[in-house]
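FAQ: What does the model actually see?

It sees only this:
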Amino acid sequence: MKVVKFLSLGLLISISYQCKEVKKEVDATQKEVKAVVEEAKPKTLKVTLEPKSDTNVSGEITFSEISGSVHMVATITGLTPGEHAIHIHEKADCSSADGKSTGGHWNPTFSAHGKWGAPEGYHKGDIGNFTEDANGNGKVEFTTDEWCIGCGENSKDITGKGVIVHQGADDFVTQPTGDAGGRVSCAGLIL
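And it is asked to produce this:
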């Protein structure tokens, strides 16, 4: 009888141990699935452009990150018809009346200013130019895998930066700004 009790106790201990191991495996699998789902879910950052330098230039910008790429859509109103530049700057600080509190172009790689993708170099904030129509409406769409939203990687993370819309067009040559003129609208990229 004692042998049966001993064997039963041993069997219960073994089953209990196996159940704990299965639970650990299930928990680990659930964590992996959750990580994959979180990675696939788009991160979104939506900001409002506020007028600067005594203008009425405003708009909205949405950044969406999915599968390692960030897609930006900006709608901008209040500019004169023609080409205007849009850049990401170093700081999310839009407190100054002229937008200069955002600092210079975001350039974590210390490259020369230029057109995005140019072999001679470009800043990570050198988005480029867009056209404002006769009614004062413009739209910019831009996609890159060189940015991220909130990943914490200094050379990719756009959070903590500022977006500036400029009065003129970027010439892609003048260092370090592209001679794009005054800062007429600003938005801080804060999660």
